[in-house]
Amino acid sequence: MWHSHSKQALQFIAMTTLLVLLLGGCGSTAGQPAEGELRGTITVSGAWALYPMMVRWGEEFHALHPDVEFDISAGGAGKGMTDALAGAVNIGMVSRGIHPQEIEQGAFWVAVTMDAVVPAVSADNPYLAQLQARGVTRAIFEGIWTGHITGWGEVIGDPEVKDGIHVYTRSDACGAAETWAAYLGAYKQEDLQGVAVYGDPGLATAVSQDPLGIGYNNLNFAYDADTGRPVAGLQIVPIDLDENGQVDANEDFYATKSELMAAIADGRYPSPPARALNLVTKGRPGGLTLTFIRWILSDGQAFVEETGYIPLAPAQLQAELTKLE
After folding, report:
1. C-alpha separations of 84 from 11, 248, 315 in Å
2. Among residues 112, 135, 153, 253, which one has the fewest Cβ atoms lying within 10 Å of its Cβ?
3. Phi, psi angles (nearest 5°) of residue 292
4. Backbone CA torsion sign across 15, 18, 24, 29
5. What's the confidence (pLDDT) of residue 152?
6. Closest C-alpha among 185, 95, 179 to residue 144
């Protein structure tokens, strides 16, 4: 009798186990771990412009998926593109348009947010009041970075001023320089003259310490993240968009980062130097990288404005998501 009950019990356990296994398989997709089971390391390099945003996205995604680690480094858009195409990183941050030859090498990209490049001078510039009242036209900026305008007197319209302009540019291949060059005309980064300085922080520091200097910076390196005002020692140069020799009310949006962000979002600040920021992979992404990029274009957008960036329009976000299908 004992053997009979024991045999029935074993059969019941076996059937129950089989049922649990079968039910456990329902609703799951082979090869796709549940969201909570994501694990691995995502490597990222590239544009200084996108670096603070990518660090924030990495922190938030890691909080959701503690087994996913990030290795994120800046170094310029050129480095991000080179590293991505070489397979040295999973994702390259590229703060400029994608070149045809890069597409031929397998570059696949999606836009994820927007920011802008802004011209800047030292807060100790002796002509700061005139610059902020008059603004500077695109043609004058072009003359400064091509070497045709060399004195501050030409910029502020005062022939009595003899001080020369100390021009700064970027030494690393970067989207900020490409974007600023594109705004000035049909130029590339190598066409910009000036003392070449590495990285956004380096350029901001060099200009802030030189009362006669002028340079350009990405939005989040020109403004302080805590105060929302220009970083200590730096001031933004208004663009005289209508070229009438004064900064009108509709051109006066540089006092705080939030004011400038609003002007970028509604198109009052020109594009370029406003631009989309891109993530680049070698070929269409897959696996963990794809999951992360999809999250950036959906839930990750909740962190864009508070990190100091400008969201893409809903239609563009959907278009970028469609590219990943």
Report:
1. 56, 43, 27
2. 153
3. -65, -45
4. negative
5. 98
6. 185
Which pLDDT value is given to residue 36?
A: 53
State how far the Cα of 107 lies from the Cα of 204, in Å rounded to an integer. 31
For residue 135, what are the contacts with CB-CB under 8 A and spacing of at least 6?
237, 238, 239, 240, 241, 245, 246, 247, 251
Pairing mode, strands 40-46 and 91-94: parallel
116-265: CATH class = alpha beta
166 SS3 class: strand
CA-based nearest residue to 275, from 310, 319, 320, 299: 310
Which ranges of the chain have pLDDT less than 70? 1-36
Q: Which tokens in the block code for residue 1?
A: 């009798």
In whole angstroms, how far apart are CA 122 and each of 12, 68, 86, 90, 116? 81, 42, 39, 38, 19
pTM score: 0.85
- 8 A C-beta contact, residue 168 and residue 205: no
Every domain of the chain and the residues it spans: 38-115+274-323, 116-265
